[in-house]
């Protein structure tokens, strides 16, 4: 889990959304640890033609795929406590 990512979130205006895969994974880790509240969203993309088909309903068209996005809603009280502990002890490992 990235304490630095939690610090970055604390400096941003909430809510906000990210869609890069690495950020989504990192934010899901923070959410699963109970440090932030958020929503993992799946945003559908248009169907992609295969073999030159131009009609999305045509045979041979790949099904629409989903792109993951993550909407950060808040930092939890536990996340705020961890940020305070980090500010008090900037050196060394931090245990939640």
Overall form: elongated
Taken in chain order, the helices and strands follow as HEHEEH
> What fraction, in percent, of the residue positions are helical?
25-40%
Over all CA atoms, what is the radius of gyration? 19 Å
Count of individual domains:
1
Give me the number of helical elements: 3
| Oligomeric state of this protein | single chain
Low-confidence region ranges: none
Distance between the termini: 10 Å
Query: Helices and strands: which structural class?
Result: alpha+beta
Strand content: 15-25%
Strand order of the largest sheet: 1-3-2
Question: Biggest sheet, open or closed, and with what strands and sense?
Answer: 3 strands, antiparallel
Fold blueprint:
Blueprint lengths: L2 H9 L4 E3 L2 H12 L3 E9 L21 E10 L1 H12 L8
Antiparallel strand pairs: 1-3, 2-3
Question: What would you note in describing this structure?
Answer:
The protein is α+β, with helices and mostly antiparallel strands and 96 residues long. It has one domain. The protein is 34% helix and 23% strand. The protein contains 3 helices and 3 strands; from the N terminus they run αβαββα. It has helices spanning 3-11, 21-32, 77-88, and strands at 16-18, 36-44, 66-75. The chain has a 3-stranded antiparallel β-sheet with strand order 1-3-2. The chain is elongated. 11% of the residues are buried.
């Amino acid at each position: 889990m990235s304490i630095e990512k939690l610090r970055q979130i604390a400096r941003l205006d909430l809510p906000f959304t990210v869609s890069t895969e690495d950020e989504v994974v990192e934010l899901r880790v923070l959410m699963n640890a109970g440090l932030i509240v958020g929503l993992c969203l799946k945003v559908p993309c248009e169907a992609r033609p295969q073999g030159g088909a131009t009609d999305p309903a045509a045979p041979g068209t790949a099904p629409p795929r989903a792109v993951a996005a993550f909407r950060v809603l808040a930092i939890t009280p536990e996340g705020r406590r961890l940020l305070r502990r980090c500010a008090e002890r900037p050196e060394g490992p931090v245990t939640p």
